[in-house]
């Protein structure tokens, strides 16, 4: 009797992908998650080809490590965690060309464990304090650039200053923020999450 994979529950499919019928069960899992996973990738990358490539990479990893999957655990959590890590690796390899928009930070922060969430909150609190301690002109320029996502040209026009002045203020702000983090003992644990969430490319780009 032919099995109806479309009606199979997720746990059954995860068990089946480890067996002889694995390809059929795997294909059904792919159909169920491909749209959601693609939208997640696209929301961060805003690049159709890269989003499709990462979608394929994620499911290749699922297939290659299918025998290690614990079917009693939430598969969607595992899937999006793999996607997040794959996106981070992609961003690291393209960091010279890629700068994340501020809203993508919260997207990358999704699907992380409670411990990481706590550290993430600690990091954002520290960053807020570091920004608040910047000299007024540096703070205004930095917030317009990194938090509002404005270009150097837009900031220069808003403030009536040159593009080069904007650039120098950003460089100064980044150095001061880095110094602030370096003088806090909790820097190591916060910076580890900073790397894992790829916010390195938004706030600390250029270090």
Notes on the protein architecture:
The chain is an all-alpha fold and 207 residues long. It folds into 2 domains: 89 residues, Orthogonal Bundle (Rna Polymerase Sigma Factor, Chain: A); 102 residues, Arc Repressor Mutant, subunit A. The protein is built from 11 helices and no strands. The radius of gyration is 21 Å and the shape is elongated. The C terminus is likely disordered.
Describe the protein's topology:
Blueprint: H1 10-16, H2 22-45, H3 48-64, H4 75-93, H5 102-108, H6 114-132, H7 136-147, H8 152-159, H9 163-182, H10 187-196, H11 200-203
Helix pairs in contact: 1-2, 2-3, 2-4, 3-4, 6-9, 6-10, 7-9, 8-9
Number of discrete helical segments:
11
| Span of the ends, CA to CA | 62 Å
* CATH superfamily heading of the largest domain: Winged helix-like DNA-binding domain superfamily/Winged helix DNA-binding domain
User: Overall mean pLDDT score?
Assistant: 77
The name of the CATH topology of the largest domain is: Arc Repressor Mutant, subunit A
By CATH reckoning, the class of the largest domain would read Mainly Alpha
The quaternary state of the protein chains shown equals single chain
Overall morphology = elongated
Number of domains: 2
Report strand %.
Answer: under 5%
Largest sheet: none
């Amino acid at each position: 009797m032919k099995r109806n994979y479309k009606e199979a529950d997720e746990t059954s499919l995860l068990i089946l992908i480890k067996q002889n019928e694995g390809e059929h069960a795997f294909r059904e899992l792919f159909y169920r998650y491909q749209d959601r996973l693609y939208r997640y990738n696209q929301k961060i990358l805003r690049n159709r080809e890269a989003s499709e490539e990462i979608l394929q990479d994620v499911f290749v990893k699922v297939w290659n490590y299918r025998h290690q999957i614990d079917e009693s655990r939430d598969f969607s959590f595992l899937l999006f965690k793999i996607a997040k890590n794959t996106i981070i690796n992609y961003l690291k390899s393209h960091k010279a060309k890629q700068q994340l928009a501020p809203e993508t930070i919260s997207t990358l922060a999704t699907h992380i464990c409670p411990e990481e969430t706590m550290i993430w909150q600690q990091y954002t609190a520290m960053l807020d304090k570091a920004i608040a301690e910047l000299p007024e002109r540096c703070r205004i320029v930095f917030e317009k650039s990194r938090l509002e996502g404005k270009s150097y040209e837009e900031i220069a026009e808003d403030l009536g200053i040159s593009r080069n002045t904007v650039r120098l203020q950003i460089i100064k702000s980044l150095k001061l923020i880095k110094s602030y983090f370096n003088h806090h003992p909790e820097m190591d644990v916060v910076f580890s999450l900073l790397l894992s969430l790829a916010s390195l490319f938004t706030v600390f780009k250029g270090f």
